[in-house]
Structure formats: structure tokens, C-alpha cells
Amino acid sequence: MARDPKGSGPAPHWQFPERFPDQVRQDPVEAEFFAPKGLAKTAIRESIQNSLDARQGPDRPVKVRFSIHEGKRVLPASKWGPYLEGLKAHLKACGEQPAPPFVPSDEPMDFLVIEDFGTKGLLGDPEQDDDNESQDQNFFAFWRAVGYSPKKQGQKGSWGLGKTAFFAASRINACFGLTVRAGDRRRLLMGRCDLKSHRVSGRKCMPQGFFAGFKPNGFQLPLEDEETLARFCKDFGLTRGVEPGLSLVIPFLRKEEFNARAIAKEVIGQVLLPVIKGDLEVDVEDAHETIRIRSDITESVADLFKDEPDKVASLNSLATFLLEAETLPPPRQFTLQGFAEGERPLWSPALFTGIDLDAAKQLFQQGKAVVFTIPLALRRKRSASPAVTDHFKVCLQHDVSLQHPDELYLRDGLAISDIRRLRNRQPVRGLVRVEGGALAALMRDSENPSHTEWQPRGPKMADWEYGSSIVSFVQESLNQIAMVLGQATKQTDWQLLADLFPDPVKATGGSGRAKPKKEIKIPAPRPKPCRQPQQVAGGFVLADNPDYTGDKNRLEVKVAYDTEGRNPFPTYDPLDFRLQDSSEFQIDSEGVEIQEREDNRLAIRISSRPWKLSVKGFDARRDLVIHVST
User: Is residue 570 helix, strand or coil?
Assistant: First the structure.
């Protein structure tokens, strides 16, 4: 085997550690977390969120470059040989397994380059082999750890699985990385390949192999030889010089998942706020075009979505709305009541006391954006420290031009894309924004590995006091506030609907005088035994109506999940829920006796007034329909 240019040992090559009899066989399955969303979507999201987390400072933007090399821009087989030295035997050994990797022969290599600038690079001891919280350890976390993340409060990832998308995007399940580190300016090159457990020449091999230099004991060392690094940069078309950051190369790219326009659309969809604020600039290029995404997205959006005029208008309106939400004047800002330490957060009318709610409603109904700040008390269960107070913001705008709600949920600038809470009939544009602090840490803990959902019952929620309730409370905030703002104000605005009805003078062509009509008196509705049901996170609350003077003391309550365009009660399925499941449902009552409790039905008797009934345990992601009858 050839030696490296310094003569210190064998030339860079691929090597897989041996799996010994006392080690558990555990094949990588992390890529399955991202398969439903697509590798391209996850790889783009992971690379950008890592780059934003590694930003050098607020005074300069992060720049990210995606470059697809195909057609005439590929690497011929005569040049890629040294980068696969020692790997082919391991690829062939996995050929009998499900979803075997591609084994290249003499075909040219197409590949994807992802580079960032204005970042710190992969910091930490390159020879670190285990967790060490006393120092930067991004190098260790990226190359030598799976399911582990050193990210701290205010950063975007948490599972330590997102980088799996880089390896899965390669037909040989490999990725190279060259980093220049802020501080020591060291340039380090390494590669990793994620396969299954396999055998080569009778030797049992671990799933992960490395392209590196190696100590006598087999420990991987990143390459620092300048000649090797210069050749790597030239062969793969890197623009990385000595500026800190990270350059990734994904060889033998799964091209069906990636193209320049699809990447650019994902960037706008996932990180629109950092782009329009000027914190992020992105270039996407392939053999045919270069797409530049900057803070003024008007031109790029018009080009990318030229066949979707409604999408163009929607994105431009959303960008304007997001920027406006950053700078709303005080008269359009409102702060709701918070929750004390140890108090479970639930939506109720009491949260809106102390603000000029009529003013907020009028602004909203006039189509003006309004923003609400909602304080919360947060505490980790195993922490000796007292609860900390944090907050999140909700911005809403009523826009009658919308055919469907336009809702966006952000955590540290990252779009949590799979949340939908506004009912389709609401022409509302809304933003829920959690930024930095303890609440962002909690919401990050609730996210799935691909960071597209907030999951109230996620495995990490047990670490937080009322963690599940807080996640549900934040998720429901946009819908809850929109419903409150949509209610009529105490002072009627007679001009609010003027555009929808003709002027009587113009309609008659005369004085507009009409024959007086006889006044019709409409009797006031009789008060019902209970107030309008109040839906809260994961359930509902019924309460006594103090205006009721009748003698009805027995009520029947039916519940079902809302279904679009259908009566939800005939379509109720016991597989949805069963109220008699005491382990699932928490029912609290005052002045009420529960007489029957079966499937989606409760029969209650009022024993004293005022009374109250609370039922919790439903899927917080779904809307409830509650019907109460005597």
C-alpha cells in the first residue's frame, strides 16, 4: 500500500473497525426517520440549520452553497479511484442485504457539494472519542456519534440524527467533509460510510467505516496533508480556501431526489425568515443555472414559481407579513396573562383580561396585523433551579383574499412545517414564533427527528414539568387567539362591511328614502343550563350558566373529532377514543355527578351550582365537536 506524502504511514484509505463477539450487532436504521419527507428536504434542512447554529456572529450573514455536479461536471473514474481506496470490498459484501449499496466500476461520479461560509467550522478535539461537555465537540458529534447532539439552548437541532441524510443521499452511503476551523484555522478532511454489519475475508465489520489516516490501534485521524487537501478541493470543485466553515461532498448522488429548483424551493419554504432578515444567503447551482436567494426574494420567487401565480402572491405576502411582525408599533402589541410556577397552561378567557381586547378585535377585523406575547413558567423536573419565565409570540392578520389559512410555526427561525391548526374557513395569516430561551429548548425536545412536528407526547417531554401541556398550549395558540379575535366587538363598526353592500342612494337612483318597515321584535333566546363549551388543549370544559333559571338538572354530552364536510357524530369510531378508558381520560368535576360514561357519551346530573366539568385526554392535534342537550 502506498504511503502518504509525509511518509508517516499508509496513504488515506477506507477502513471499517472489526466487530468483536462481545459487541451487539446494531445496523443503522436512522434514515428511516426521514424517508417519508424525502432525503433532499432533510439534507437541505439539516445543512442550513447546522450552518445557522455555527454562525460566527450577528454582523455578517451565513452563506450556503449547493452545487450539483452532473453531465459535464462529473468526476471521471480515473480521478475518483483514490477516494474509494479500500471501500469497494465492503460495498460488495453488503450486496446480499436488503437495499444493497451501489458498487461503482468505471462510471463517472456525480456528486453534490454543500458549503457554508461565515461559520465556525467543526470545532473540538479531532481525537476526541467520547462525550466531553467541557469543550466544543462538533467534530466528534458529526463524525463519531449517532443519536447524540451537543447543541445548546437557542440552536436548531437536538436528536443528532439529521446528518444521516447526508450519507443516505449517496448511492454508496458515504459523505466526505472538509472543515476549516475558526480559531486555530486547521484544515481537516475526513469521510464516513454507513453500511450494515458485514464480513470481508471472514472478518466481521462494524457498519461505519472511515476515510482517514489511522493510528496503530485503528483510531481514525482526519487528514491534514496540504497536497491531499488541495487535490480534493480541485477534484470536487470546492470554493473553500482558508475561510472557516464546512464543505460536504456527497458522492454518487441519488440524482432523482435532487435538482437545483427543488432545492431552492425548499430553502424558501423552510428558512424564509432568516433569508428575508438578511441572516442567510443561499446559492444553488447545477449544470444549467445558478439561483441566488437573498433578502429581497421577489425576483427569485417569481422565477421559481412562475407557473403558480397564487403561490408567488402568497409567498410575497407572507414575507411582508413576517417583516411587519418584527416591527409592529406598541398599539398593535398585546401581552396576555401568564401562568404561575406549578400551574398547568390551558387556554381560557381569563388569559385575555387586562388588555384592550376590543381594540385588538377591531385592528384584526380591519385587516391589520396584531401580535400577542404569551408568558410561560418553565422548569425541568430534575433541576434544583426555580422555574424560569419565558414567552412566545403569535402574530395574526385577517385577509379576506386568502382562500385557505396561511399559518407558519417557527422555532429559532426554523419552520416546523407539518403543523396545521387553523380551520379551513378562517381567512387568517398567522405566525407562532418561539425564539431562544428555555421555551425553545422545550419545543426542540418535542420535535421529531426531521424537525417537522411538535409532539406533545414525545419521549423527552417527561423531563419537563407539564411538558406535554405546554407543547399543546403553544400549538393551539394561533387557532385559539384567531377564534377570540373573530368574535364581534362590543362597539359595532358600521363601515366594516361597507364594501359588500350597496349604498341605498346609488341603488335606488334617488334620495334613498324607503317606506318605513314595521319593526319586528325577536324574542331573546332562553338561557341554557351551561355556557358554550370551551375547547382547551387535549379536551374541553363545561361550566354553569348563571343566567339559567330553569329546573333541568340532567345533561347529555356527546363528543367527536371534527370531520371536514361531514356530521362528525355518525362517523364516530370507538378506535378514535372511548371515554370509559380511565387510563386515557382525566375527568374533573365540581357540583356534577357522572351517571353514564360510554364511548363518546357522558350523562351528568347537576347536584349543586355553580358547577364545572373538565375532560382531558383527547388528541390535542385534532379539533373537537361538543354537543350538549337536556
Answer: coil
Bridge partners (DSSP) listed for residue 179: 188, 246
Angle between helices 467-485 and 437-446 (to 10 degrees): 100
114 vs 238: CA distance, rounded Å: 9
Distance CA 256, CA 107 (A): 17
SS (H, E, C) 66-100: EEEECHHHCECHHHHHHHHCCCHHHHHHCCCCCCC
Beta bridge partners of 590: 612
Residue entry with cell 436528536: 159
Q: What is the pLDDT of residues 48-94, one digit of tens each?
A: 989 999 999 888 899 999 999 999 999 999 999 999 999 999 999 99
pLDDT per residue over 246-305, tens digit each? 999 999 999 888 899 999 999 999 899 999 999 999 999 998 899 999 999 999 999 999
Nearest by Cα to 181 from 114, 236, 246, 247: 246
CA-CA distances (angstroms) from residue 23 to 120, 208, 470?
A: 36, 14, 40
Cis amide linkage into residue 610, ω under 30° from 0: yes
The values of phi and psi at residue 53, to 5°, are -65, -30
Query: How is the chain split among helix, strand and coil, in percent rounded to 5?
Result: 25, 25, 50
- Which pTM value belongs to this model? 0.72
Select from 392, 418, 397, 420 the least CA-distant residue to 407.
Answer: 420
